[in-house]
Amino acid sequence: MEASDDSANLRARGEEAVGELAQALLENPLFSSALGKALGAGERAVSAQRSAMGALNVASGSDVERLEQRLRSLSGRLEAIEDRLDEVADRLAVLSRRMGSDAQPVSTDQSKLAVSESDA
Questions:
Q1: Rounded CA gap, 118 and 112, in Å?
Q2: Reported pTM
């Protein structure tokens, strides 16, 4: 029991010492100034990186994410259109059968609607 009390006491004193050190550093104007300059330099570096990437016409991570979202949206819309076209083709086939042999047969062959990779 005494070993755990010593350990808890030592931990508490260590936490207190670290807290006091952090407070003293934050109150030190030289440290605060250096910290502010370092953070400002980091922000300027990120800004310069964005500018350089823009000048080189290289997409940023956020640009790629936006493009990916737009492609997903477009893909979903295209799938919905394909489903709707299938429904229309099925309805046309039913109508063609109902009209009998007088009407021209309606093809429901989806391969005629296929888009080749070179057309995309």
A1: 15
A2: 0.43
